[in-house]
User: Fold these one by one.
Assistant:
Number 1:
Amino acid sequence: MKILVIDVGGTHVKVQASGQRSRRRLPSGPGLTPYRMVLGVRDLISGWHYDVVTIGAPTRVQRGKIAAEPANLGRGWTKFDFSHAFERPVKLINDAAMQALGAYEGGRMLFLGLGTGLGTAMIADGVVVPMELAHLPYKKATYEDYVGLRGLERNGKKKWRRDVADVVGRLAIALETEDLVLGGGNSKHLKKLPPGARRCTNADAIKGGYRLWAEPDLQG
């Protein structure tokens, strides 16, 4: 079975498929509707062969369906028929949960994605538990306002790093984490990782998209 994985982010859509060494991408952003995403991806992968599709979306996904419009993209995601558009079976998953799945090694793992916003997911004994912790109150705003891109640009790297360390520590303790994983494009700005943390990469997001089909015991 050949699997096409689509990782939809706030700035880029990244695409890879079984048997393809290269990862391709196209621009994302506030004007990206699901229809435009599908057209862009189909042009991008012309000539690729695949049997099924995994889509990681930057929003809430419940029981295999997009439950809320993505904050940083265009509209129309909640009612779009992706299986019809790709003419293949499609599995939808939160983008943070997909990257977490790729990095998972067992036990109770908390994933925090430091990107445009704050992606959060937990995997407990093989069961993926997407979370929306980013908008919980923190200081004078929310976690995302301090450790997402807005906080980095507003406060600078030094203060942002302190806030990341504080937020990571709070969430790891509250959720009784056994394994702590940090991802997202802005994790590269951390001089050192918080105690007990390890880092994953964008490649883990693609791996998670494969695992969703290839390892049925893992529940997305």
Number 2:
Amino acid sequence: MGHGFANITVRGQTQNTLLNYLKKHQRNAYVSPKVNNFVVVYDEDSEFDLEKLSNLSLQISGDFSCVAFSIVTYDESWFAYDLYENGNLRDEYCSSGEDLFPEGGDAQKLCTILGAKSSINRIRPILREPTTETVYLFASQRHKNLVRELGLPTWSTYIIGGYRDIKEEEIDAVVFDEDGFPDVEATLSMLKNTND
């Protein structure tokens, strides 16, 4: 069985603002530091429940009048996202639809809302390429390419993953070194937990 995780990248909020918000709503979650105006939320309850993930993303987006980009990968076979803006679903995507062709995903809308208009032409093939052994055998590769082109923080990729990965410290130090992260211990210390 492969690796799966979920998280929510929030635009325009701070680590402490989201931490206090999640505490107020009695969520068990980790929150990343702010990078390039983005903060990543790793929520325990929505890790493997798409409905809960969507509901939390919608709630954050509506309550803060901001953008929330929730992603989920499962067993390296598929990657999906929902994009919320001001409490409204603006775009959704799944990498493995009928006959392994992706479904949904509007590159122009995605890039415009996330502030990466210059990347539209590079994002389209990432979203449209079929899931095959030659291009996108692994969902994490599609997600990593999308994050890079959108200018999102590496905190939202498989390097950190989701709540379970952080809690169990299942983070590969070699991967961190390759992507310019500090060591695992230093990286984990930059995350804040709602239970602390």
Number 3:
Amino acid sequence: MLRKSVRPLRKASNLRATLLCLLDLLLFAALLVGVVAAGSPWTKLLCSALLALSISRLFVIGHDACHQAFFGNRHANRWIGRLVFLPSLTNYSLWEVGHNLGHHGYTNLRGHDYVWAPASPAEYAAMPRWRRALERFYRSGFGFGAYYAVELWGKTLLLPSAEQRDRKGTAFRTDTWLVGSFAVAWIGALALAGGATGQSPLLLVACGFLLPFALWNGIMGTVIYLHHTHPDVVWYDDP
């Protein structure tokens, strides 16, 4: 009934989806070239900051594709989703398990939906001192990016549990290979460009990879904090 009610609102445009993908992929590539070609360190830093926004835009496309809500074809959504997830180093199959099945299947149910899950005062008091300090840092405003990098990307997309890996099998291994190969190629290309242009490879890797990826984590951590955390947002223990 619910799907039938929203069906009139679904109007997939493969042409528009394709043009958006091409635009954002070209923007990502152009900003990488800008990091290498720019003579001024400030211009390199500007390109670096814009790269983080470009990664964010590509991630949004991947998010929608993973929901089968971007292209009209399921296979196109899956493979284009994998492609545009690469700059954020997001494993498509693991994101599908954690986000589509975990978050949307069990929204705000503790033990299943793990994004910014709150702790009761008693649970917080029972934590070790280091963990209480870490939780306060995560929610301080300065730690949003660290929360995403460690608790979500690190623990569920980079080093997932055996259960998460087993749920996707071959798809998990394929996506892990894709993400790992892309990261190596990204860093390697920047290092080689540094040698070829007489620039510091470390500087180009820092401006073309490390800083944009760190800023992306900050953007993502902030957005999901604002989506999930508010005194009026109810969480549940009972399904």
